[in-house]
Amino acid sequence: MTDQTPTALPADADWWRRAAIYQVYIRSFADGDGDGTGDIAGLRSRLQYLAHLGIDAIWINPWYPSPLADGGYDVSDYRDIHPAYGTLDEAKQLITEAHAVGLRIILDIVPNHTSDQHAWFQQALAASPGSPERDRFIFRDGKGEDGSQPPNDWHAAFGGPTWTRTEDGQWYLHLFAPEQPDLNWDNQEVRAEFESVLRFWFDLGVDGFRIDVAHGMVKDPALPDLGLTEFSVLTGEGQPDHPHWDRDGLHDIFRSWRAIADSYPDPRVFVAEAHVRPHRMPEYLRPDQLHTAFNFDFLKCPLDAGKLREVIDRSITSLAAVGAPATWVLSNHDETRHVTRYGRADTGVQALFRDRPIPTDLALGTRRARAAALLMLSLPGGAYVYQGEELGLYEVEDIPEELLQDPIWERSGHTLRGRDGCRVPLPWTGDTPPFGFSTSVLATPWLPQPKDWKSYTAEANQADRTSMLQLYRSALRLRRTNPNLRGEDFRWLDSPADTLLFERGNGVLCAVNLSAEPILLPAGAGPLLASGPLSEDGGLLPPDTTVLLQRN
Ligand code: NOJ
Known about the structure:
The protein is α/β, with parallel strands linked by helices and 552 residues long. Helix content is 26%, strand content 13%.
């Protein structure tokens, strides 16, 4: 076990209960070698920016060797770094440097499936049916006299069947793309391997893991038919006793992972990507299992005061029952950026169909995104900021079809454009692409950046006192330094229809106006920070605006 020095990390076993965690989609964050792809060198060069932003930790999307069939969620070696991103030595330096500026590092572990190029899967293909090599994955004979029908009727998350046939006639299961064969978590070798992978990175000083598809790792060994139609695979997530989502057997795995995390002197933490029914979430966050989980109910909630209040209430109270903090998130690398979502008539999450562009008012979306960000950062618990949201970036919806990389595009038969529009490389400086993303001005970013991102660069944001970046910095600073916001106290106060009003600690109020009219601000309190201009006399809160106030 090594502990990293130098370190500016506060000794705080509970840091994760209120952490603001910044998501680094490494391929698109910053390119330090001029090849158009983000990398560790780029990330290291921007650590000061992140420290200055006021976050506590960064979560780095998968950075392991991978054929990138699904943006790195197809891992071919869990103990190394993709050569396009750098080397293991650079990763070690990054960990040390991040700690030295007070930032913790969370990696992404992908335990539901490997890449089809992973040594284990190659060995499984070369081995015979019934072999120990095949038992690490989920191989089955097909149905029908000649076995030419898949073993069951499941559909894969990106479209198409969830089974692919191998040369010798057996089929293997993949809940996602065919390049992502599912592991068999009933196999002890699989369990031991992932425990060893966790230790490998924890020993290097990594502070935690985000667990990909945490709700999908255990399957009903009978693999029963589901009777689903194509594309309903994800909506089937809410079904009780589902054969591959949210099975009780998961909890033993997470208990053993927690014991490993707790065996380190500085706490190592887990955050689950678990799409489960709200009343099931506490099962994952009991004190002997995972620390936190993403709150996708919050991300997916339309900007409607009543609905938001319901989600906020449910999140806080259901998790408090097991002693876990709530978390909040507005965007990530899988969903349409919230500036765009909130600029639409329906502000919930929608799939992006190729031939059905949705009318969007980006000025409105930006105003609402500012209000939502200040709301999120004023709530008790953890918060996730997806790279670029602090710059006010919108979803890029006009990436030429021939440049789309998300497997959803191919696997949906070119009907769904997929998730590339929220993964476009960040604009840092200057007036023309690559906007300082690459060290070389001649580099072509792996996805094209819109020309008008010249007014969205970190540099342009920095120069404008009222920019999105300044709002995030101010809100993050308050969250860290104001004792009322640091605690977990939270209570609703009465407020007009279509608005929210709550108190944090003793005397910090947060008011959110999602109605069409200005509302009176609570008397006896002065503004600490607002997401947009208040009325001239400071007495009214305009529509689509949030304000944090301090009682006099
Ligand atoms: C969830 C990840 O966030 C997503 O990007 C990925 O495609 C799937 N899991 C499969 O690993």
